[in-house]
Amino acid sequence: MADWILRESLVTGSGTVRWDRLGDPGGEPVVLLHGTPFSSYVWHEIAPALAAAGYRVHVWDMAGYGSSGMHAGQDVSLGAQGRIFAELLAHWGLQEPAVVAHDFGGCVALRAHLLHGARYRRLALVDPVALKPWGSPFFRLVGEHSGVFEQLPAALHEALVREYVSSASHLGLRPATLDALVGPWTGEEGQGAFYRQIAQADQRYTDEIQPLYPTIDLPVTVCWGTEDTWIPFARGQELAGLIPGARLVPVPQAGHLVPLDAPARLTGELLTFLMA
């Protein structure tokens, strides 16, 4: 990830969080949230494109992810991430930015808005974790036996993470992109962090907010990869039906990693939404 470096940091109750900004300081603010087991690198093509279009783009790695701090005993739950995101918005002085959130980042953005008072001008949800039930059989297996998986030999662990991350793409990831997504989860610190974030994943964090979706009162678009094998397209239809006025945008030939499978198509949809 030599060409993707987050230069700023904020110390939070869950450790140091890395973040950065791109684009014209006077541009309309847009914040991008990543999911799991990824990092802000999923936006490495879309963030510069939005910045080139005149937006002030904010990116960050969630606590325990990417270049942010990782340590034993760290709270990296969705509950913690929602609080941290609200804290980051205050730190940035953003009162009502546009927000674009992928996967777990969708739950983080929704929790910050519905439970912690964060206000958005617009919200774009990209294949978000937002509705029950969620969690693949692999995800549940690892969550129930995280202590065992933490002891895997390093090479076997890396092979597992590579296969898991690869399965989120429909078209296949370029080797350098796959390396950038897998890299933070390698080494003793990264291996522990990978299983820690899965062990702390709990459906109750979406159960707490799902009944509140009909109260959302802002423009929302739901973009969904039609070939998503992690969370099927039908969940996008269901979610869009729960949020008043939400628009569902299918993204053809894209799996769960829409920002990497279809960056140009997604950028175009986001620009249309942001300028509406």
Please, could you describe this protein's structure?
The protein is of the alpha/beta class and 276 residues long. 40% of the residues lie in helices and 16% in strands. The chain is built from 12 helices and 8 strands. It has helices at residues 46-52, 78-92, 104-115, 137-144, 146-149, 154-166, 175-182, 187-199, 204-207, 233-242, 258-261, 263-275, and strands spanning 8-12, 15-22, 29-33, 56-60, 98-102, 122-126, 220-225, 247-251. An 8-stranded mixed sheet has the order 1-2-4-3-5-6-7-8, sandwiched between helices. Helix 1 (46-52) links the parallel strand 3 (29-33) and strand 4 (56-60). The longest helix is centred in the first third of the chain and has 15 residues, at 78-92. It is globular. The mean pLDDT is 95. One of its GO terms (molecular function) is monoacylglycerol lipase activity. It comes from Streptomyces collinus. This is Pimeloyl-ACP methyl ester carboxylesterase.
Which helices and strands occur, and which strands form pairs?
Elements: E1 8-12, E2 15-22, E3 29-33, H1 46-52, E4 56-60, H2 78-92, E5 98-102, H3 104-115, E6 122-126, H4 137-144, H5 146-149, H6 154-166, H7 175-182, H8 187-199, H9 204-207, E7 220-225, H10 233-242, E8 247-251, H11 258-261, H12 263-275
Parallel strand pairs: 3-4, 3-5, 5-6, 6-7, 7-8
Antiparallel strand pairs: 1-2, 2-4
Estimated radius of gyration? 17 Å
The percent range for strand residues is: 15-25%
Poorly predicted regions are none
Largest sheet: 8 strands, mixed
Give the helices and strands as they follow along the chain: EEEHEHEHEHHHHHHEHEHH
- The number of helical runs is 12
Terminal Cα span: 33 Å
- What global shape is seen? globular
In which order are the strands of the major sheet placed? 1-2-4-3-5-6-7-8
Number-wise, the strands total 8
Q: Into which percent range does the helicity of residues fall?
A: 40-55%
Give the overall pLDDT as a whole number. 95
